Amino acid sequence: QVRLVESGGGLVQAGGSLRLSCAASGSISSIRTMNWYRQAPGKQRELVATMSSGGSTNYVDSVKGRFTISRDNAENTVNLQMNSLKPEDTAVYFCNIIGTTGWRSNFNSWGQGTQVTVSL
């Protein structure tokens, strides 16, 4: 079983920055995709940023130029640097990692979620 633990959420004023981290533990053979999702109250969960095994990235239009997803291979960690935050970025942020375990089975693991609140 692959477990994900998130950190770095909090309260910030509009225009500020936060850095989210997601550390994976367990027997991991390979990682195919690392994703960050968010869910605001009353809204559906939204894919915010994704990074493939090859390092290519994609972002939802609303965060392009402001958010950056990165990966620390040695630590099996995925980060989300969020700059120029806006009140509409307020949500619970979830990391999601898809890959293969050391026992050659597929996994699709989720973090517990971390609250990001952006005030005016």
Describe the structure.
The mean pLDDT is about 95. This protein has no helices and eleven strands. With about 120 residues, the chain is mainly β. About 0% of the residues lie in helices and about 60% in strands. The N and C termini lie far apart (about 40 Å). The radius of gyration is 14 Å and the shape is elongated. Strand 4 and strand 5 form a beta hairpin. The strands form two sheets. Strands 2, 4, 5, 6, 9, 10 and 11 form a seven-stranded mixed beta sheet that branches. It has a four-stranded antiparallel beta sheet with strand order 1-3-8-7, with no helix packed on it.
Short summary of the structure?
The chain is mainly β and 120 residues long. The protein has no helices and eleven strands.
Give a quick account of the main beta sheet: strands, pairing sense, barrel closure. 7 strands, mixed
Query: What is the radius of gyration computed over CA atoms, rounded to a whole number of angstroms?
Result: 14 Å
Annotation field: number of helices: 0
Order of helices and strands: EEEEEEEEEEE
Number of strands: 11
What does the secondary structure layout of this molecule look like, with pairings?
Elements: E1 3-7, E2 10-13, E3 18-25, E4 28-39, E5 46-52, E6 57-59, E7 67-72, E8 77-82, E9 91-101, E10 106-110, E11 114-119
Parallel strand pairs: 2-11
Antiparallel strand pairs: 1-3, 3-8, 4-5, 4-9, 5-6, 7-8, 9-10, 9-11
Name a few traits of the molecule.
120 residues, mainly beta, 7-stranded mixed β-sheet, 4-stranded antiparallel β-sheet, 11 strands, 0% helix, elongated
